[in-house]
Amino acid sequence: MNAVASALLNGAILSAFLAAAIWLCLRLAPRHFLNAATRHMVWWMVLGITIALPVFQLPVHRARPAKPVQVSLPAVETRQTIPRTSLAGDSSGAARTARGQAGSTNCNSAAQAFFPS
After folding, report:
1. b/e sequence 65-89, b meaning 16+ C-beta within 10 Å
2. Rounded distance between C-alpha atoms, residue 111 and residue 24, angstroms
3. Is residue 76 part of a domain?
4. Residue pLDDT, tens place only, 53-62
């Protein structure tokens, strides 16, 4: 009940400020700028906002799960080893393949196919 009373009081205060601001704007506006029907519609809109304001002041209660969900993930091996090969005297691409650099020779041959020197 305390939340409802607080919402009504906050809505009333905001509505009073809104009504005062609209009254001042309509008072300062020239009469030929807004006719009577437009002024009447503006006051009806202020009344609708005044009625709706306390609803927006109410606290929102969201449903929470009764128990937090716990998930256990499997362990992941983060370290991978690459086997080393001897680079001495090896002119073939086997040593470069073991270190992951075999693609550079393929790129060079592809570039030479498109751009012959």
Report:
1. eeeeeeeeeeeeeeeeeeeeeeeee
2. 77
3. no
4. 888 877 777 7
Per the listing, tokens 């128990």 go with 67
Which amino acid, one-letter code, is at 107?
C
**What does the chain come to in residues?**
117
Number of folded domains that form the chain? 1
- Match 């006051």 to its residue by tokens: 43
Return the amino acid letter for 106. N
Please report where in the chains the tokens 């009806």 appear, as a residue: 44
pLDDT digits (tens, 9 = 90+) for 5-64: 888 898 999 999 999 999 999 999 888 888 899 999 999 999 999 999 888 877 777 777
- The 8-class DSSP code of residue 53 comes to H
Residue 70 lies in a domain: no
Look up tokens 């009764």; give the residue: 66
